[in-house]
Design brief:
Length: 445
């Protein structure tokens, strides 16, 4: 048999040992470089596009926290947007969640369709400012999808002024609180102290980077006496509700069953197992839990100071527990155990403090008209779900975007947005139905 020798093999045999070593090293270096470049391209091609944090629309006048006379019936609201003569957009405005959205007037340099600058004059025909906290939301509505944040919301205060220009809120005689009214004030104060004490009992020691959260303007709510600030709920893990609230829907967030004592890729997505983890409510306010924890079932147990007084039974993903009403004032703890296979002793815990009504003839069951809740979505999809909630008759009170503890999942990004919603137009059955339509569309897995 005739042996054939290829040129490359011939050259290799003719090389001295030192030259062979050099060639091997160069070959390995070239191979490593090719692998690294290939992997980098794969990573970039597979990484989901990060949601935009560019504001597509901004309210410039009035500004966050302004104080404005309530007699200003023709308040001018003005701002800017990313629209120009080449895009087909318009700006819509809503005040204090009074629908429908109102179309703003374009004020750009390129004519009637240029909303790079815009303004809207608030007239009594649409609505008037109310004394106290007021909310304005601007919405960018475009024919073609733009990768920008499509909403901007500001909160400002309207004050009653007298003809001389002074604030007449303080000109009213101060009412002497005595007798039963004084006792009620003391009761609320004691309840708040008990609320803070109970919260300390149930709070876990949670390590999270609060300083890395994306700072957004603090927002209050139109529901008088309630604290529905998403940023505060994230930071303080608590919510205080007024008698105006008939029902509170507590969120069991996706991965809420995970302990913080695990590797980073197994951590929860938010710093509390229930959102809000701690609440203070008035007697006759109903509470229910929404299970948005993908693929996991939950069961709520509730104790007073002595023993277990309530158990929800098991309810699956994308369903709610039956409403619970507490008619006795005091401090309660709710909890779930055996929720994590990796950390068997981890217990999900929360607290409810119930206080009495402000007046004897004004109960939440009689006058409570709002249903309130929280929700968590990937930050890059906040506009989609905000629109989904508003289309279903909800109002968005406030939002807060933060970097989640886990650092992100495939398809969701590393930032989550917590928002607080309310409605006074929907029944509880309609609220539950809308939540059960929206929750399965979240990209969590």
């Amino acid at each position: 048999m005739v042996s054939h020798c290829f040129p490359a093999e011939f050259m290799w045999h003719k090389m001295n040992p030192e030259m062979k070593k050099i060639m091997v090293v160069l070959g390995l270096a070239l191979l490593v470089s090719i692998i690294m470049i290939s992997n980098t391209n794969i990573v970039f091609s597979q990484s989901p596009a990060k949601g935009s944090t560019t504001h597509g629309v901004k309210i410039q006048t009035p500004s966050q926290g302004n104080e404005i006379s309530i007699g200003n019936d023709n308040l001018t609201i003005a701002g800017k947007s990313v629209d120009d003569e080449s895009s087909d957009c318009q700006v819509l405005v809503i005040v204090n969640d009074i629908k429908p959205y109102q179309k703003a007037a374009s004020n750009g340099l390129h004519g009637a369709n240029d909303y790079s600058k815009w303004e809207f004059t608030l007239s009594p025909d649409y609505t008037k400012l109310k004394e106290g906290s007021n909310k304005i939301t601007a919405k960018l509505d475009c024919k073609d999808e733009l990768d920008v944040l499509k909403y901007d919301t500001i909160i400002f205060t309207a004050t009653m002024t007298n003809p001389s220009g002074g604030n007449n809120l303080n000109s009213q005689p101060t009412e002497d609180i005595s007798g039963t009214e004084q006792n009620r004030a003391v009761d609320v104060h004691n309840a708040e102290e008990k609320f803070n004490q109970t919260q300390e009992l149930v709070n876990e020691t949670t390590s999270y980077d609060n300083s890395s959260a994306l700072q957004q303007p603090n927002m209050t709510t139109s529901i008088s006496g309630s604290t529905l600030n998403a940023q505060n709920i994230y930071g303080d893990k608590k919510m205080i509700l007024s008698p105006d609230v008939a029902y509170l829907v507590i969120l069991i967030p996706n991965e809420g069953h995970e302990s913080v004592n695990q590797p980073k890729n197994q951590l929860p997505l938010i710093n509390q197992p229930y959102v809000p983890q701690n609440v203070m409510i008035y007697k006759s306010t109903g509470i229910l839990w929404l299970n948005a924890d993908v693929g996991h079932r939950h069961k709520i147990s509730l104790n007073d100071s002595n023993s277990k007084i309530f158990e929800s039974g098991i309810f699956g993903y994308n369903t709610t527990s039956k409403p619970l009403t507490l008619n006795k004032t005091g401090a309660y703890q709710y909890w779930e155990s055996h929720v994590s296979k990796d950390v068997p002793d981890f217990v999900m815990k929360g607290a409810i403090t119930v206080t009495s009504q402000m007046s004897t003839d004004n109960t939440a069951s009689q006058n409570g008209k709002y249903i309130v809740g929280t929700y968590m979505v990937p930050a890059k999809f906040i506009d989609k779900y905000r629109s989904g909630f508003e289309d279903n008759g909800f109002n968005i009170d406030s939002t807060f975007t933060y970097k989640d503890l886990r650092g992100g999942q495939k398809g969701t990004g590393s930032e989550q947005t917590l928002f607080v919603w309310d409605t006074h137009n929907l029944s509880l059955e309609e609220v539950i139905s809308a939540l059960e339509e929206l929750t399965p569309t979240l990209p969590y897995n």
